[in-house]
Amino acid sequence: AQTVTQSQPEMSVQEAETVTLSCTYDTSENNYYLFWYKQPPSRQMILVIRQEAYKQQNATENRFSVNFQKAAKSFSLKISDSQLGDTAMYFCAFMKPNDYKLSFGAGTTVTVRA
Amino acid sequence: EPEVTQTPSHQVTQMGQEVILRCVPISNHLYFYWYRQILGQKVEFLVSFYNNEISEKSEIFDDQFSVERPDGSNFTLKIRSTKLEDSAMYFCASSEIGRTSGQGTQYFGPGTRLTVL
Question: What is the per-residue pLDDT across B81-93, written as a single tens digit (0 to 9) for each?
Protein backbone atom coordinates (compact mmCIF):
# COMPACT_ATOMS: atom_id res chain seq x y z
CA ALA A 1 0.00 0.00 0.00
CA GLN A 2 1.14 3.50 -0.74
CA THR A 3 1.87 5.78 2.20
CA VAL A 4 0.76 9.39 2.08
CA THR A 5 1.86 11.60 4.96
CA GLN A 6 0.44 14.96 5.93
CA SER A 7 2.49 16.18 8.84
CA GLN A 8 0.37 19.20 9.77
CA PRO A 9 -2.86 18.22 11.56
CA GLU A 10 -4.07 21.83 11.76
CA MET A 11 -3.22 25.18 10.24
CA SER A 12 -4.68 28.63 10.72
CA VAL A 13 -4.42 31.54 8.31
CA GLN A 14 -5.68 35.09 8.21
CA GLU A 15 -8.11 35.95 5.45
CA ALA A 16 -6.31 37.12 2.27
CA GLU A 17 -3.05 35.54 3.42
CA THR A 18 -1.30 32.50 1.95
CA VAL A 19 -1.01 29.07 3.52
CA THR A 20 0.98 26.05 2.36
CA LEU A 21 0.05 22.48 3.24
CA SER A 22 2.65 19.76 3.05
CA CYS A 23 2.29 16.24 1.72
CA THR A 24 4.88 13.54 1.19
CA TYR A 25 4.39 10.09 -0.23
CA ASP A 26 6.25 6.86 -0.61
CA THR A 27 6.32 4.98 -3.89
CA SER A 28 8.65 3.08 -6.17
CA GLU A 29 6.57 3.99 -9.22
CA ASN A 30 7.90 6.44 -11.77
CA ASN A 31 4.52 7.51 -13.04
CA TYR A 32 1.55 8.21 -10.81
CA TYR A 33 -1.06 10.82 -10.01
CA LEU A 34 -1.49 13.13 -7.06
CA PHE A 35 -4.56 14.98 -5.88
CA TRP A 36 -5.71 17.43 -3.28
CA TYR A 37 -9.28 17.11 -2.09
CA LYS A 38 -11.14 19.56 0.13
CA GLN A 39 -13.67 18.45 2.74
CA PRO A 40 -15.64 21.37 4.21
CA PRO A 41 -17.83 20.98 7.31
CA SER A 42 -20.55 19.54 5.08
CA ARG A 43 -18.10 16.62 4.69
CA GLN A 44 -18.42 16.41 0.91
CA MET A 45 -15.13 15.57 -0.83
CA ILE A 46 -14.32 18.16 -3.49
CA LEU A 47 -11.45 17.86 -5.95
CA VAL A 48 -9.15 20.87 -5.68
CA ILE A 49 -6.26 20.05 -7.98
CA ARG A 50 -4.55 17.19 -9.79
CA GLN A 51 -0.95 16.57 -10.85
CA GLU A 52 0.50 13.95 -13.18
CA ALA A 53 3.98 12.84 -12.12
CA TYR A 54 5.31 12.91 -15.69
CA LYS A 55 4.53 16.61 -15.97
CA GLN A 56 7.23 18.89 -14.64
CA GLN A 57 4.98 21.93 -14.64
CA ASN A 58 3.19 22.49 -11.37
CA ALA A 59 -0.61 22.41 -11.59
CA THR A 60 -2.59 25.56 -10.85
CA GLU A 61 -6.30 26.15 -10.33
CA ASN A 62 -7.14 29.76 -9.62
CA ARG A 63 -5.92 30.50 -6.08
CA PHE A 64 -4.68 26.93 -5.58
CA SER A 65 -1.28 25.78 -6.78
CA VAL A 66 1.04 22.91 -6.03
CA ASN A 67 4.78 22.55 -5.61
CA PHE A 68 5.57 19.09 -6.93
CA GLN A 69 9.06 17.88 -6.12
CA LYS A 70 9.31 14.40 -7.61
CA ALA A 71 12.77 13.54 -6.33
CA ALA A 72 11.78 14.52 -2.81
CA LYS A 73 8.35 12.84 -3.19
CA SER A 74 6.73 16.02 -2.01
CA PHE A 75 3.45 17.56 -3.14
CA SER A 76 2.53 20.72 -1.25
CA LEU A 77 -0.59 22.81 -1.78
CA LYS A 78 -0.52 26.59 -1.64
CA ILE A 79 -3.72 28.50 -1.06
CA SER A 80 -3.30 32.15 -2.00
CA ASP A 81 -5.58 35.01 -0.96
CA SER A 82 -7.32 32.72 1.54
CA GLN A 83 -11.08 33.10 1.84
CA LEU A 84 -13.42 32.12 4.66
CA GLY A 85 -14.90 29.47 2.38
CA ASP A 86 -11.53 27.76 2.21
CA THR A 87 -12.02 26.57 5.79
CA ALA A 88 -12.01 22.78 5.46
CA MET A 89 -10.04 19.60 5.90
CA TYR A 90 -7.62 19.09 3.01
CA PHE A 91 -6.57 15.62 1.95
CA CYS A 92 -3.63 14.69 -0.21
CA ALA A 93 -4.17 11.53 -2.26
CA PHE A 94 -2.06 9.24 -4.45
CA MET A 95 -2.98 6.93 -7.30
CA LYS A 96 -0.76 4.45 -9.11
CA PRO A 97 -1.15 3.85 -12.82
CA ASN A 98 -3.33 0.87 -13.65
CA ASP A 99 -4.86 1.10 -10.22
CA TYR A 100 -8.36 1.92 -9.19
CA LYS A 101 -8.00 3.32 -5.73
CA LEU A 102 -6.91 6.52 -4.10
CA SER A 103 -4.67 6.37 -1.05
CA PHE A 104 -5.33 9.31 1.24
CA GLY A 105 -3.28 11.11 3.83
CA ALA A 106 -4.64 11.83 7.29
CA GLY A 107 -5.68 15.35 6.33
CA THR A 108 -4.89 18.90 7.43
CA THR A 109 -7.57 21.09 8.95
CA VAL A 110 -7.32 24.64 7.63
CA THR A 111 -9.10 27.44 9.44
CA VAL A 112 -9.31 30.83 7.76
CA ARG A 113 -9.74 33.68 10.28
CA ALA A 114 -11.65 36.83 9.43
CA GLU B 1 -22.38 20.70 -13.53
CA PRO B 2 -22.98 16.94 -13.20
CA GLU B 3 -22.44 15.53 -9.75
CA VAL B 4 -22.55 12.29 -7.83
CA THR B 5 -25.54 12.00 -5.52
CA GLN B 6 -26.04 9.73 -2.52
CA THR B 7 -29.05 8.72 -0.43
CA PRO B 8 -29.80 8.78 2.39
CA SER B 9 -27.64 11.52 3.86
CA HIS B 10 -27.88 9.88 7.27
CA GLN B 11 -28.85 6.31 8.14
CA VAL B 12 -29.33 5.03 11.66
CA THR B 13 -29.61 1.29 12.15
CA GLN B 14 -29.45 -1.35 14.83
CA MET B 15 -26.49 -3.69 15.05
CA GLY B 16 -27.11 -6.83 12.99
CA GLN B 17 -29.46 -5.13 10.55
CA GLU B 18 -28.87 -4.88 6.82
CA VAL B 19 -28.42 -1.49 5.20
CA ILE B 20 -28.27 -0.41 1.59
CA LEU B 21 -26.54 2.81 0.68
CA ARG B 22 -27.42 4.28 -2.68
CA CYS B 23 -25.44 6.32 -5.16
CA VAL B 24 -26.16 7.81 -8.56
CA PRO B 25 -22.83 8.31 -10.37
CA ILE B 26 -22.23 10.92 -13.04
CA SER B 27 -24.08 9.71 -16.10
CA ASN B 28 -21.20 9.18 -18.56
CA HIS B 29 -18.90 7.62 -15.97
CA LEU B 30 -18.06 3.94 -16.18
CA TYR B 31 -16.06 3.28 -13.02
CA PHE B 32 -17.58 3.41 -9.56
CA TYR B 33 -16.06 3.34 -6.11
CA TRP B 34 -16.96 3.19 -2.45
CA TYR B 35 -14.80 4.69 0.28
CA ARG B 36 -15.42 5.08 3.98
CA GLN B 37 -14.21 7.51 6.60
CA ILE B 38 -14.50 6.62 10.26
CA LEU B 39 -14.86 9.81 12.29
CA GLY B 40 -11.50 11.46 12.80
CA GLN B 41 -9.67 9.05 10.53
CA LYS B 42 -8.49 9.05 6.95
CA VAL B 43 -10.59 8.11 3.96
CA GLU B 44 -10.19 4.42 3.10
CA PHE B 45 -10.84 2.63 -0.17
CA LEU B 46 -13.41 -0.17 -0.07
CA VAL B 47 -14.13 -1.31 -3.60
CA SER B 48 -14.09 -0.38 -7.26
CA PHE B 49 -16.61 -1.60 -9.84
CA TYR B 50 -16.62 -1.72 -13.62
CA ASN B 51 -18.69 -3.53 -16.21
CA ASN B 52 -20.89 -5.11 -13.58
CA GLU B 53 -18.11 -6.65 -11.59
CA ILE B 54 -15.69 -5.77 -8.84
CA SER B 55 -12.35 -4.51 -10.17
CA GLU B 56 -10.55 -4.33 -6.86
CA LYS B 57 -11.44 -4.51 -3.20
CA SER B 58 -9.63 -3.81 0.03
CA GLU B 59 -9.25 -6.07 3.03
CA ILE B 60 -12.01 -4.08 4.70
CA PHE B 61 -14.48 -5.26 2.05
CA ASP B 62 -15.24 -8.64 3.52
CA ASP B 63 -18.16 -11.00 2.97
CA GLN B 64 -20.63 -8.76 4.76
CA PHE B 65 -20.24 -6.14 2.05
CA SER B 66 -21.57 -6.32 -1.49
CA VAL B 67 -22.05 -3.90 -4.35
CA GLU B 68 -24.49 -3.86 -7.18
CA ARG B 69 -25.58 -1.79 -10.12
CA PRO B 70 -29.24 -2.80 -10.23
CA ASP B 71 -30.15 -0.53 -13.14
CA GLY B 72 -28.53 1.96 -15.49
CA SER B 73 -28.18 4.70 -12.93
CA ASN B 74 -27.89 3.42 -9.36
CA PHE B 75 -24.86 1.92 -7.63
CA THR B 76 -25.45 0.41 -4.20
CA LEU B 77 -23.40 -0.75 -1.25
CA LYS B 78 -25.03 -3.34 0.99
CA ILE B 79 -23.83 -4.19 4.45
CA ARG B 80 -25.44 -7.48 5.36
CA SER B 81 -25.20 -7.49 9.16
CA THR B 82 -23.99 -4.19 10.52
CA LYS B 83 -21.52 -3.93 13.37
CA LEU B 84 -20.80 -1.00 15.65
CA GLU B 85 -17.48 -0.47 13.89
CA ASP B 86 -19.26 0.03 10.57
CA SER B 87 -20.32 3.47 11.79
CA ALA B 88 -18.67 5.86 9.37
CA MET B 89 -19.20 8.22 6.48
CA TYR B 90 -19.51 6.27 3.24
CA PHE B 91 -18.54 8.04 0.04
CA CYS B 92 -19.41 6.97 -3.47
CA ALA B 93 -17.21 8.17 -6.33
CA SER B 94 -17.15 7.77 -10.09
CA SER B 95 -14.74 8.36 -12.94
CA GLU B 96 -14.97 8.36 -16.71
CA ILE B 97 -12.34 5.69 -17.09
CA GLY B 98 -10.34 3.69 -14.61
CA ARG B 99 -6.90 4.30 -16.02
CA THR B 100 -5.12 7.26 -14.59
CA SER B 101 -5.40 9.90 -17.24
CA GLY B 102 -7.17 13.19 -17.20
CA GLN B 103 -10.44 11.35 -17.41
CA GLY B 104 -9.60 9.07 -14.50
CA THR B 105 -10.19 11.66 -11.83
CA GLN B 106 -12.65 10.45 -9.23
CA TYR B 107 -15.55 12.69 -8.28
CA PHE B 108 -17.14 12.13 -4.91
CA GLY B 109 -20.70 12.28 -3.69
CA PRO B 110 -21.70 14.09 -0.49
CA GLY B 111 -21.54 10.91 1.57
CA THR B 112 -23.93 8.90 3.73
CA ARG B 113 -23.37 9.03 7.46
CA LEU B 114 -24.08 5.55 8.84
CA THR B 115 -24.67 5.20 12.55
CA VAL B 116 -24.91 1.70 13.99
CA LEU B 117 -26.44 1.47 17.47
Answer: 999 999 999 999 9
